[in-house]
Amino acid sequence: MDKAALHIGAVAFIHRYGSSLNGHVHFHACVVDGVFEEVAGVGDADVHASPPGIVFHPATGIDADAVAQVQTDLRRRILRSHRGRLRTSAYFPGARTTAVG
Prior knowledge:
By secondary structure, the protein is α+β, with helices and mostly antiparallel strands. Helix content is 18%, strand content 31%.
């Protein structure tokens, strides 16, 4: 398998309002847990050839500990990048950054 030919799949968008139409900017994302590989068709065009297609290869080695570590790291990085801009830690329980100037 040629790793350069593999592609991840994800869809993300910004949602600007909450369920009561209040201003509440947040993100929605759908990310697959694997990769896609484009495969060429096989066989002679005059005979029964298989068409080109896409094969999905599921990710392996993902467990709850690995996911928890990524979540912890991302949370720390996001909070660090917003230090000095946050007015409240209500959306980030346990956050040390609670006041801004």
